[in-house]
């Protein structure tokens, strides 16, 4: 049996750049003192990256804000944060202002909130330079342009004069990175720098961060909930729970041999792009504890499947594991009494998190072509006028948001609709949910053409068959209504009035989605994010629909909660024979839950087919780029896989000239002969089947891509 021993400081060839010791942060509240960070310690060397992961409320961001000195005055901060031999906690705000931006650069989650909207991007970088350096305005402007070029912004001399609202989300984040590295800082703190970005932009931002680290030689703290991002960018990983570190190791060691049940649970809750078995995920049950008056016990005990009585008697220390650790890397330590017993996510050969049993989907046993269509779109188009002028507006163009798409969904089937922001996914959903005749083409719901729904009764009848689950569960629930009233509203809308019947049906709905019916009189604010999303799903199921439209239903949830919602959706599909139109930007989730996938780009579907065909054999260069951008929670695979980074600007959505819309960013286009390139630029490719007529792509030269891969 492998033994644990007290953490010892390993001899190092150089002093750490950043040394955090016993950092504690507390906030006052009406309920008592909130211990947000409870004794965090770590070292970070120059040129290295530390990944900090954990659920919301674990203390990740508060730790980084304490290092930066950005916590409010009422926060009680103790311990030490030493940067290059100087304790930052001893500095007042005036002296700390000389450290921020000069020795420490910060990249926040929302780039738009980090930039002043009334100043140009270039002038804001110039300001960051001149505050900390004795440099002329001309030299500072030249340096700002160089920085924008370094982070990959095209035409940097021109774009430096642009304002934040004129930049896309990815370009704004690049500008923030340029500002963070402007003064060659010793330390860069990136707090969820890719959370709100498309996967292709995320890959570009991570590449820019690596470039910035190479140029400055800085150490990086990467705070994220995405273990795939950590696997590909971190040297060491610290897992936080309830305000403290519960496991710490080198990235290879942590992912290959996690020793803390919480870490194992996080890894099992992640849908993986390289997993084709699609077994049920293993969610971490329960919710994190409130950080007020915590008992002297393991804070994870209430959620831990390997808990023992001793775990509830005292909180375990973070101890090093004898024999654990990477060669030349960080020592492997865990705050778990049973860490020495854990091997390959199991104790004594029994998995800590058994894979939940999956329900059989009876509809899937019937061949797809024999199942009825619950949704069909034929040549659906939606445009918006582009106007100019104030009082007297005139149309100067047309935005082609959805430009002639065809798809269908069969009974008991999930279709994943994926693509970058602005590709037309949400507009497609709105056209479907509107139940009105489309601008061009036809939409049929459960065999009924929306163009033929003339009366309100007809629309109400179809509305019962199609319901929607929204991205933000709190934003889609009325905070002034109890769960009972929220679930009763759609039932009353379809004619149910009897109080006893309503009560019975609401209890059944809550049990169906894994909620306690005794909580029906509570308000949404009393529930966690995952529970609120379950309430939204229960409301959608109230009318017994045949099709659910799910718009990013898990993107706002922690990975542990996300796994439970994904399992619930799969169980409901199997039990009730539901069909899903599932919109998401996370292709790992789409791969896990979908039977078929449709890839959209600038209003058109460029590839569609069953999930395994599209993910194992992508034909369109855009699909290849999307798949290569998804990070894998496997450090070895992340370091060896080939990336396709898209370059170039998106074409204008007002341009409907013939030709491939992807040509300006297509890596395949650059390898073609001149006649082939002319065909790409002048002839619009149509969805075409090749060997497999169910797998269609809209690329003239997809066969060349396939042959190159083989």
UniProtKB/TrEMBL annotation:
PANTHER family: D,D-DIPEPTIDE TRANSPORT ATP-BINDING PROTEIN DDPF-RELATED (PTHR43776:SF7), TRANSPORT ATP-BINDING PROTEIN (PTHR43776)
Taxonomic path: Bacteria, Bacillati, Actinomycetota, Actinomycetes, Kitasatosporales
Name of the protein this chain belongs to: ABC transporter ATP-binding protein
Organism domain of life: Bacteria
SUPFAM superfamilies (UniProt xref): P-loop containing nucleoside triphosphate hydrolases
Domain ABC transporter: 20-267, 375-627
InterPro entries: AAA+_ATPase (IPR003593), ABC_transp_ATP-bind (IPR050319), ABC_transporter-like_ATP-bd (IPR003439), ABC_transporter-like_CS (IPR017871), Oligopep_ABC_C (IPR013563), P-loop_NTPase (IPR027417)
Transmembrane stretches, start-end: none
One Pfam entry name: ABC_tran
CDD domains xref list: ABC_NikE_OppD_transporters (cd03257)
Keyword annotations of the record: ATP-binding, Nucleotide-binding, Transport
Entry's family note: Belongs to the ABC transporter superfamily.
Gene3D superfamilies: P-loop containing nucleotide triphosphate hydrolases
Single Gene Ontology MF annotation: ATP hydrolysis activity
Gene Ontology BP, a term: peptide transport
């Amino acid at each position: 049996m492998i033994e644990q021993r007290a953490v010892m400081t390993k001899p190092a060839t150089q002093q750490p750049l950043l040394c955090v010791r016993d950092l504690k942060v507390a906030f006052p509240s009406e309920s008592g003192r909130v211990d947000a960070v409870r004794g965090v310690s770590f070292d970070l060397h120059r040129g290295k990256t530390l990944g900090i992961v954990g659920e919301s409320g674990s203390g990740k961001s508060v730790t980084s804000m304490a290092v930066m000195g950005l916590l409010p005055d009422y926060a009680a901060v103790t311990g030490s944060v030493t940067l290059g031999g100087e304790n930052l906690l001893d500095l007042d705000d005036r002296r700390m202002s000389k450290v921020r931006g000069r020795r420490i650069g910060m990249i926040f989650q929302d780039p738009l909130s980090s930039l002043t909207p009334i100043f140009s991007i270039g002038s804001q970088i110039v300001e960051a330079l001149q505050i900390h350096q004795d440099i002329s305005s001309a030299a500072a402007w030249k340096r700002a342009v160089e920085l924008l070029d370094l982070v990959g912004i095209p035409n940097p001399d021109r774009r430096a004069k642009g304002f934040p609202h004129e930049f896309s989300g990815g370009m704004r984040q690049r500008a923030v990175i340029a500002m963070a590295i402007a003064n060659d800082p010793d330390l860069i703190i990136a707090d969820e720098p890719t959370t709100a970005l498309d996967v292709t932009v995320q890959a570009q931002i991570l590449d820019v961060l690596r470039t910035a680290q190479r140029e400055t030689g800085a150490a990086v703290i990467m705070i994220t909930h995405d273990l795939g991002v950590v696997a590909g960018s971190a040297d060491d990983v610290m897992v936080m729970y309830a305000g403290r570190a519960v496991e710490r190791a080198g990235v290879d060691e942590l992912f290959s041999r996690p020793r803390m049940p919480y870490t194992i649970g996080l890894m099992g809750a992640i849908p993986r792009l390289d997993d084709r078995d699609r077994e049920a995920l293993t969610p971490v049950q329960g919710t994190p504890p409130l950080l007020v008056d915590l008992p002297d016990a393991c804070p994870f005990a209430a959620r831990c499947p390997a808990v023992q009585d001793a775990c509830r008697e005292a909180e375990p220390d973070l101890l090093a594991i004898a024999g654990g650790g990477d060669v030349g890397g960080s020592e492997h330590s865990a705050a778990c009494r049973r860490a020495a017993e854990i091997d390959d996510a199991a104790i004594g050969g029994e998995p800590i998190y058994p894979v939940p049993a999956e329900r059989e989907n009876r509809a899937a046993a019937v061949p797809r072509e024999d199942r009825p269509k619950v949704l069909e779109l034929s040549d659906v188009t939606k445009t918006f006028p582009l106007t100019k002028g104030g009082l007297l507006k005139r149309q100067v163009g047309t935005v082609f948001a959805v430009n002639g798409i065809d798809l269908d969904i069969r009974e008991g089937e999930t279709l994943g609709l994926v693509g970058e922001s602005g590709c037309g996914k949400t507009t497609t959903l709105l056209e479907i949910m509107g139940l009105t005749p489309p601008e061009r083409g036809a939409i049929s719901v459960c065999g009924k053409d929306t163009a033929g729904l003339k009366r309100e009764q007809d629309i109400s009848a179809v509305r019962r068959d199609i319901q929607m689950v929204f991205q933000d569960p709190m934003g889609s629930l009325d905070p002034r209504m109890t769960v009972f009233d929220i679930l009763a509203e759609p039932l009353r809308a379809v004619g149910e009035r009897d109080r006893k019947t309503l009560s019975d049906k609401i209890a059944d709905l809550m049990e169906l989605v894994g909620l306690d019916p005794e909580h029906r009189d509570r308000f949404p604010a009393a529930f966690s994010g995952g529970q609120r999303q379950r309430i939204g799903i229960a409301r959608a199921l109230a009318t017994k629909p045949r099709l659910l439209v799910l718009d990013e239903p898990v993107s706002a949830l922690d990975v542990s909660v996300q796994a439970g919602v994904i399992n619930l959706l799969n169980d409901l599909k199997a039990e009730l024979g539901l069909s899903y139109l599932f919109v998401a930007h996370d292709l790992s989730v789409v791969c896990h839950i979908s039977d078929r996938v449709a890839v959209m780009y600038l209003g058109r579907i460029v590839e569609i087919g069953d999930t395994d065909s599209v993910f194992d054999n992508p034909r369109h260069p855009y699909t290849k780029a999307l798949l290569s951008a998804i990070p894998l929670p496997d450090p070895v695979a992340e370091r060896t896989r080939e990336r396709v980074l898209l370059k170039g600007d998106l074409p204008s959505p007002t341009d409907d000239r013939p030709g491939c819309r992807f040509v300006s960013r297509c890596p395949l286009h650059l390898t073609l002969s001149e006649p082939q390139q002319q065909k790409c630029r002048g002839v619009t490719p149509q969805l075409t089947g090749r060997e497999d007529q169910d797998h269609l792509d809209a690329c003239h030269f997809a066969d060349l891509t396939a042959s190159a891969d083989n």
